[in-house]
Specification:
Blueprint: H1 2-39, H2 41-52, E1 53-58, E2 65-66, E3 72-84, H3 86-89, H4 94-103, H5 107-116, E4 126-129, H6 134-143, E5 150-159, H7 167-170, E6 173-175, H8 178-183, E7 194-196, H9 199-203, H10 205-208, E8 213-219, E9 225-232, E10 239-242, H11 246-256, E11 261-266, E12 273-279, H12 285-288, H13 293-300, H14 323-333, E13 342-344, E14 347-350, E15 353-356, E16 364-366, H15 368-373, H16 377-387, H17 389-398, H18 420-427, H19 433-440, H20 450-461, E17 465-467, E18 472-476, E19 482-485, E20 490-493, H21 498-513, E21 524-525, E22 530-536, E23 560-567, E24 574-580, H22 586-602, E25 605-606, H23 613-620
Helix pairs in contact: 11-22, 14-16, 14-17, 16-19
């Protein structure tokens, strides 16, 4: 009895410690449960759902791009993409090697792609290969049940059925990078999303892109799909109708053959771009399928800069096309009249050097009309000295030179129109009168883009109006409902009298149609074309240089060839600016290209040359 009593006393002594111990145990369990269910409940629930519920993105179709007549320029096609889910591969490491074998790619390449996705959300698929062919698709689908974590999805991929046609205008797509992702505040983009990177694809990104959808599916422990849980259908993007004409674009590009340069055609009464060519060009498809390193290297290292839209980014001396501005400045200032004559002997001595004319024997006594028709340099040297650099620069700016036009394409350049104040600010030096001679014929510090010279010739053609260049006609939804139209936008009217413009217009008509006009290579049957040739020097030529030596020079030192024109003369419907890089002379290299484009647009027949064959070689060297 005493023993039992003693045992009870001992038990009572440790009982309170046992209760405290059990209480602490339950308290710790309670704290742990509180942490798991309340504090971490949301995160753990998400991980649990991710383990059995997967979200598969369903990208929206991008809007289709048409030409003005509704012919497709860019659309979408199905592309089969291969994905792996790293979490599903932990229990099945051999899947990587099996998939690599089926796709005929090194396993190391797949492993590198898996390692590169460190910030990826749990169970988010990693793209292994894009746009697989039919045979690869069959092999994968036939073996997919044996490869947990592998699935193939169908995504829309951009297609450009006309290859390189109008590639600088249409542009291309590429995967969004981190900087673009940070800047895309309003749009819902994810890493790996394809977005517009260039051209119309870039500038109208918000119109062309749709709203992505997705599928929610339940999977088993091996990652195999059990059943769909929910679907959100994607909403496709809107369709874009451009102002260009597909047939005219083809003719313009074919006319360049293997030449480098740019051509832009416009309706001078509306500003609508009818064709835009930049040569050499590039196939936009290579960017949509992840461009290969060797392909990218060949593009960026090409000395002819195929990735540059030369129509709006290339900056060149205007050459003799700029004589239009010098003539307008002389007439408007009253420094010359249409009857003012200067004598051309083939060289004009000023300071310590001779400034030459393209015609070695000279033009003799010559007035304004004939000076434009035959592009006499010495006439415009002397007009430039009378007018001065600042007044010439004023009228150049009046026609939009030295400033961006506002066209809705990225990276447009402004060019340079020098003046005395510009040189003082830029170089800290005064302007010298000898520099005015070069400036008056479109050389020296002057730089323009083909689009700016197109604005110049269009402004002369339509009586002094400058229109905003436009490349998009309208936007429609997938049902054909018109969402937005882009009517002509008149920017301003140049401050030049109608009388002056008529004088210049007549001279430009003569440059193509008069017996000694330098633009004779652009004559059409039954249609009067007005235009101006130009030859822009790339390097300063030696004093004893002969025009016939041009073809013996290295290509990179040869002159650029220009031709600007509009037609019909009485009622202009098309204006064209043509640049042939290192093409030599505007009369022989650029004018024939413009002729093909104008003839196609107006359904006109080329006119047989009116010059005698023995004289053609002389006019081929006209600038």
């Amino acid at each position: 009895m005493e023993l039992n009593t003693q045992r009870m006393e001992d038990f009572k002594g440790i009982y309170k410690y046992l209760v405290i111990f059990i209480g602490l145990g339950f308290f710790m369990i309670f704290i742990r449960l509180w942490s798991l269910q309340v504090i971490k409940g949301t995160d753990l629930r998400r991980l649990s759902e991710n383990n059995c519920i997967r979200l598969r993105e369903n990208p929206a179709d991008r809007g289709i791009i048409f030409d003005q007549k509704g012919r497709i320029l860019a659309h979408n096609r199905p592309s089969y993409e291969v994905y792996l889910i790293p979490e599903d591969l932990k229990m099945n490491p051999g899947v990587v090697h099996e998939v690599a074998k089926l796709l005929n790619i090194p396993p190391e390449e797949i492993e590198e792609k898996l390692r590169a996705q460190k910030r990826r959300a749990p169970f988010k698929p990693v793209k292994i290969k894009s746009d697989i062919n039919w045979n690869e698709l069959v092999r994968l689908e036939s073996n997919r049940i044996h490869h947990p974590g592998l699935f193939v999805d169908v995504r829309p991929r951009r297609a450009y059925d006309h290859g390189e046609l109008a590639s600088h205008l249409i542009g291309y797509l590429g995967e969004i990078d981190e900087n673009e992702l940070k800047q895309a505040k309003e749009a819902t983009y994810r890493m790996g999303t394809l977005i517009g990177k260039y051209g119309v694809e870039y500038r109208w990104e918000d119109v062309l892109r749709g709203v992505d959808g997705g599928r929610q599916i339940e999977v088993d422990a091996l990652g195999r799909e059990i059943r769909p849980l929910g679907t959100v259908e994607p909403s496709p993007g809107n369709n874009l109708y451009l102002t260009i004409d597909l047939d005219l674009q083809k003719i313009a590009e074919e006319a360049y053959q293997d030449k480098s340069g740019a051509l832009i055609a416009m309706d001078p009464k509306t500003g609508r771009i009818l064709a835009m060519v930049s040569k050499p060009s590039f196939p936009p498809d290579i960017f949509a399928r992840n461009i290969l390193p060797e392909e990218w290297k060949s593009l960026v290292e090409n000395p002819h800069h195929p990735l540059q839209n030369k129509g709006i980014q290339g900056q060149y001396p205007a050459g003799s096309v700029f004589k239009i501005i010098t003539a307008i400045a002389g007439l408007e200032s009253g420094m010359i009249t249409p009857d003012t004559q200067f004598f051309c002997t083939g060289a004009f001595h000023y300071g310590n050097r001779d400034f030459r004319c393209w015609k070695e024997g000279g033009h003799g006594a010559i007035s304004l009309h004939r000076a434009i028709v035959e592009s006499c340099d010495i006439y415009f040297y002397q007009v430039g000295l009378k007018v001065g650099v600042d007044l010439i620069a004023h009228y150049a700016n009046e026609f939009g030179l030295g400033q961006v036009t506002g066209i809705s394409l990225p990276h447009e350049k402004s060019g340079t129109v020098p003046s005395s104040s510009w040189k003082k600010k830029r170089f800290g030096a005064p302007w010298y009168s000898g520099e005015t001679l070069s400036f008056s014929v479109g050389q020296g510090y002057l730089n323009t883009t083909p689009l700016q010279l197109l604005m110049l010739i269009s402004g002369v053609a339509n009586g002094g109006k400058l229109f905003l260049p436009q490349v998009v006609d309208k936007v429609e939804d997938i049902y054909g409902n018109k969402l937005k139209e882009y009517p002509p936008v008149e920017l301003r009217r140049v401050n030049v009298s109608e009388k002056t413009l008529r004088i210049v217009q007549e001279a430009l008509r003569g440059a193509v149609n008069d017996p000694h006009g330098t633009g004779w290579n652009c004559q059409l049957k039954d249609v009067k074309v007005a235009g101006k040739t130009g030859t822009a020097q790339v390097v300063r030529l030696p004093e004893n240089f002969k025009k016939g030596d041009m073809n013996r020079m290295p290509l990179k030192f040869r002159d650029h060839a220009w031709f600007v024109a509009y037609a019909p003369f009485e009622d202009p419907k098309i204006s064209v600016a043509v640049l042939v890089e290192h093409g030599g002379f505007g009369a022989s290299a650029a004018a024939p290209i413009a002729k093909k484009v104008i003839a196609k647009y107006l359904n006109a027949e080329p006119s047989p040359p009116i010059k005698m064959l023995e004289k053609q070689s002389e006019f081929d060297y006209a600038d």
